[in-house]
């Protein structure tokens, strides 16, 4: 079993199942983007993240709860791995075109699942490296920890993604076993993915509902135990508590004991997954690529109602949106991602305990009054604008708009100008980003009773910020498209342009937030300055897209 699993893993990695960093021989833009990624985006993002970690650490050190920073790193990493692992598991286990190619081979379901699981784990190591490792190193430096602490930390990093991904895989396989029935499998695949995600988020919040601790209880716990607060953060994923204990007590024997327990639990979870896959994986994946349709005769008097006259940009925009929605890989990885954070907000309110809900409403009332102060309103405006810029670059629609055409780049046959085609591709990403943003901002504005003028300013400026990051993603994909792919998964999941645009958007977003706290302008000045910066950026990017972008698009098609 071991040999076949590793052989399959090697095959998957060689055939594009691994991580593609976007290097292309003969493409100068590929190397320019990679250099910018390592020399500009990563250092700036890492510096901003370490500054945030430092502020949190110093605040926790005052009450003697420094270890909370480690528990946050473990818990947040596990939660993000679990949520986004659902999408990765769906894409790799079920929607990849190589799935049915493995079925006739003399391999068992557990060997296929094991190989695919290892490829997914590789992606999660990137996330763990960005989120958990900086926290680990910062905490170790502040605590003047020895080499044993960092050795334990590296071992924990290796095993950390396993339990959250195993839980995500259990959930996905159960749902897909049920939804892979019936005639309309394309619709059921999308429905199964959405159901898996909704169930995963609901279970997390449902468990948190029964974890209510009063302030008096929390105060007593802090007085009784120096690490009590850090242990609270690990309840969502109980296995993480042994990882935390091993890092806190790395100098004594219990640290090694907890490390071994954490590693053993992770390995046991993986073995249980393989046993589970043996029972239901084939039943959920056989026939996954089949689909059904219904045919009906169109009468002559019905033809006129089926034909509508639209502008070229609107027609192409609707076509792009239909493709994104109807293709399961694109829908789950590009469209649904825009509605993750609104869902978190809604589920958090729905599953919150009565005490927490009362406290939340009280804080909203306080915030409503604070927004009447011009300086506070200016700070909130700048922060929301920065968040909008980050969200606008996180969905990957514009950053893969050209790559998704692949080798079949036949849009040159469409009677549209290149500029119009690019505008339609840009708007397809902005529409979904802005829709998810509206689902967060409008309910929040109603709850806190924000002034109408303030809400209008935020909505207008945020749309411009999403246009800016959307144009950045489109230009990045024009410069360095990934056109050589065999499956939709490779065009989206293994396209480094998504990461480039995400990091560039983070630089803009965090830059706006940092400028907000540095200047502390009143709302009128903040609206003029920050909106002006974003609008100037949009104007510059639009000019670049209109001139160089159209030339580059013509070169790609020719």
Structure description:
Helices cover 77% and strands 0% of the residues. The chain has 558 residues and is mainly alpha-helical. Helix 3 (68-95) packs antiparallel against helix 11 (240-248) and helix 18 (374-392) packs antiparallel against helix 22. The longest helix has 35 residues, at 523-557. The mean pLDDT is 79.
What is the fold's blueprint, element by element?
Blueprint: H1 2-17, H2 28-61, H3 68-95, H4 99-102, H5 109-142, H6 147-159, H7 162-179, H8 185-209, H9 215-224, H10 228-232, H11 240-248, H12 253-285, H13 303-306, H14 312-326, H15 328-335, H16 340-351, H17 354-370, H18 374-392, H19 418-448, H20 452-479, H21 488-492, H22 496-519, H23 523-557
Q: Descriptors for this entry?
A:
single chain; 558 residues; mainly alpha; 77% helix; 0% strand
Please write the string of helix (H) and strand (E) elements. HHHHHHHHHHHHHHHHHHHHHHH
**Global shape:** globular
Poorly predicted parts: none
Number of domains: 2
TL;DR of this structure?
With about 550 residues, the chain is mainly alpha-helical.
């Amino acid at each position: 079993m071991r040999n076949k699993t590793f052989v399959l893993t090697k095959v998957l990695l060689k055939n594009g199942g691994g991580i593609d960093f976007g290097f292309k021989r003969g493409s100068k833009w590929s190397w320019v983007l990679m250099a910018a990624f390592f020399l500009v985006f990563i250092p700036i993002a890492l510096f901003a993240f370490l500054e945030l970690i430092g502020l949190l650490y110093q605040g926790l050190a005052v009450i003697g709860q420094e270890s909370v920073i480690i528990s946050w790193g473990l818990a947040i990493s596990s939660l993000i791995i679990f949520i986004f692992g659902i999408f990765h598991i769906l894409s790799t286990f079920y929607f990849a075109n190589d799935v049915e190619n493995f079925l006739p081979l003399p391999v068992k379901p557990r060997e296929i699942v094991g190989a695919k699981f290892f490829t997914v784990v590789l992606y999660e190591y990137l996330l763990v490296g960005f989120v958990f490792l900086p926290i680990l190193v910062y905490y170790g430096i502040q605590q003047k920890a020895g080499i044993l602490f960092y050795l334990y930390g590296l071992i924990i990093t290796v095993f950390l993604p396993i339990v959250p991904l195993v839980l995500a895989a259990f959930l996905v396989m159960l749902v897909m076993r049920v939804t892979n029935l019936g005639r309309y499998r394309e619709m059921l695949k999308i429905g199964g993915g959405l159901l898996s995600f909704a169930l995963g988020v609901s279970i997390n919040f449902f468990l948190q509902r029964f974890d209510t601790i009063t302030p008096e209880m929390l105060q007593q716990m802090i007085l009784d135990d120096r690490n009590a607060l850090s242990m609270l953060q690990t309840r969502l994923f109980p296995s993480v508590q042994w990882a935390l204990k091993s890092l806190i007590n790395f100098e004594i024997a219990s640290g090694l004991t907890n490390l071994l327990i954490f590693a053993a639990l992770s390995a046991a979870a993986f073995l249980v997954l393989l046993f589970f896959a043996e029972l239901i994986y084939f039943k959920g994946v056989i026939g996954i690529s089949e689909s059904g349709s219904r045919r009906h005769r169109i009468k002559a008097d019905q033809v006129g109602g089926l034909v509508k006259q639209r502008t070229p940009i609107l027609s192409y925009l609707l076509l792009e949106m239909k493709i994104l929605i109807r293709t399961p890989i694109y829908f789950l990885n590009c469209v649904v991602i825009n509605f993750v954070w609104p869902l978190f907000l809604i589920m958090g309110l729905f599953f919150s305990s009565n005490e927490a809900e009362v406290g939340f409403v009280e804080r909203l009332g306080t915030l409503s009054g604070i927004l009447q102060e011009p300086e506070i309103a200016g700070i909130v405006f700048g922060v929301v604008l920065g968040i909008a810029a980050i969200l606008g670059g996180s969905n990957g629609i514009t950053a893969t708009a050209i790559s998704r055409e692949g080798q079949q780049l036949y849009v040159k046959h469409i009677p549209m100008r290149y500029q119009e085609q690019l505008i339609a591709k840009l708007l397809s990403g902005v529409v979904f980003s802005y829709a998810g943003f509206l689902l967060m901002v409008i309910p929040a504005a109603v709850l806190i009773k924000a002034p109408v003028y303030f809400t209008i300013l935020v909505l207008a400026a945020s749309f411009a910020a999403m246009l800016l990051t959307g144009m950045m993603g489109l230009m990045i994909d024009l410069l360095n498209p990934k056109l050589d792919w065999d499956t939709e998964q490779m065009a989206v999941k293994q396209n480094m342009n998504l990461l480039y645009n995400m990091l560039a958007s983070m630089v803009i977003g965090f830059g706006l937030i940092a400028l907000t706290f540095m200047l502390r302008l009143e709302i009128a000045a903040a609206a003029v300055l920050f909106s002006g910066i974003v609008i100037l950026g949009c104007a510059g990017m639009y000019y670049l897209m209109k001139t160089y972008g159209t030339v580059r698009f013509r070169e790609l098609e020719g």
